[in-house]
């Protein structure tokens, strides 16, 4: 009986010893789920092109993006435009042939883009004309 109790105690201690590193390894509760929705487009134009990928996160009110342009060394500021051609969100100036970052986005604009991404396009003016692409999910 004493041997059985010792064995049970050793098994219990062994299980507790295994549980402590697992808790340390996996940390506490999982992080909040990623609520961002990706959008993307291929940018095309007369002599240049590129790629644009964005993530719209309505609960956080945030729009993050990365953009690369090729075929020109003169891209200027980029923008996200609506169907009427008006800029709805400035994407800022490109550094060299790339740009990226995060910025606030209004809840109604985020919802509108996610409901109909094809109604919005990215435009990058260059010395040889703009390169553009319509958003997709």
From TrEMBL:
Q: Which InterPro entries match?
A: CHRD
Which SMART domains does the UniProt entry name for this protein? CHRD
Presence of keyword Thylakoid: no
Q: Which residues form the CHRD domain?
A: 16-137
What span is annotated as the signal peptide, if there is one?
1-24
- Keyword entries, A-Z: Signal
Return the Pfam families for the record: CHRD
Q: Look up keyword Mitochondrion and say if it applies.
A: no
The lineage's top-level taxon is: Bacteria
Q: What is this protein called?
A: CHRD domain-containing protein
């Amino acid at each position: 009986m004493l041997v059985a109790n010792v064995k049970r105690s050793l098994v219990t201690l062994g299980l507790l010893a295994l549980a402590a590193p697992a808790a340390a390894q996996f940390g506490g509760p999982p992080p909040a789920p990623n609520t961002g929705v990706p959008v993307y487009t291929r940018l095309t134009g007369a002599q240049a092109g590129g790629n644009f990928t964005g993530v719209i996160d309505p609960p956080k009110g945030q729009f993050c993006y990365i953009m690369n342009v090729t075929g020109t060394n003169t891209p200027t500021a980029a923008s996200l435009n609506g169907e009427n051609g008006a800029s709805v969100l400035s994407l800022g100036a490109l550094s060299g042939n790339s740009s990226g970052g995060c910025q606030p986005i209004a809840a109604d604009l985020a919802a509108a883009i996610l409901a109909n991404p094809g109604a919005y396009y990215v435009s990058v003016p260059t010395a040889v004309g703009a390169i553009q692409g319509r958003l997709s999910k």
